[in-house]
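Dear Dr. K.,

Following up on our conversation at the group meeting, I've run the structure prediction for TetR/AcrR family transcriptional regulator from Pseudoclavibacter chungangensis. I'm pasting the input sequence below exactly as I used it, so you can double-check it against your construct before we proceed with anything downstream. Let me know if the numbering doesn't match what you have in your notebook.
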Amino acid sequence: MTRARLSGDERRSQILDAVLPVVLECGSDVTSKQLAEAAGVAEGTVFRAFGDKDSLLIALLERETGERLSSDDITAIRPSSLEDLVTIASALLVDRFVRVFRLFVVLGPLAARAPQNDMEEKLVALHAALETQFEPFREELRVPPSSAAEALRTLAFAASSNWGRGEAFIKPDDIAPLLLHGIVGQPNPATDPGQLLSAVPTTLP
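The predicted structure tokens came back this morning:
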């Protein structure tokens, strides 16, 4: 039984899937031979599909950026609480941002040649999806849902800016308590205004 012949787009997608690990390992120094071996095809097949090595690497970055910055997973969240929403969304965002940052780092100057318009559109859509998710919890928020969405996206983005080391500076599990409760621990009676007021006698001698 003969296999169905792949279309050009299917072949390119298959090659990109296969070469991602070696690109993350070698960056823009990866050779066309390494790419072909990773994809299990001849070098000529790689060149016919993408033209040259740089075009393949840019296509890989475009695809990964588009998929990783997609708002679909955020839209699909069905949170049971505000904390549940922030916890789940944090994990999703950091996972995606880390991969995108890592690719940008390993590809170096070549990454600057990738079109930026699509990325900006994806980030706008991502913000809108987060804002929509925060809307049902408006009464619990001290800021508008739009500001909450921007705070979460910014914190996840910053946590993922690890210069390609493969792990976030701030763990996803720490983002929810940090965003919802801040960095302050138990109130200090010596400095907390509420504690100071409660210590004032209610009647004068």
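Two things stood out to me. The chain is about 65% helix and 0% strand. Residues 193-200 have pLDDT under 50 and may be disordered.

Best regards,
J.T.
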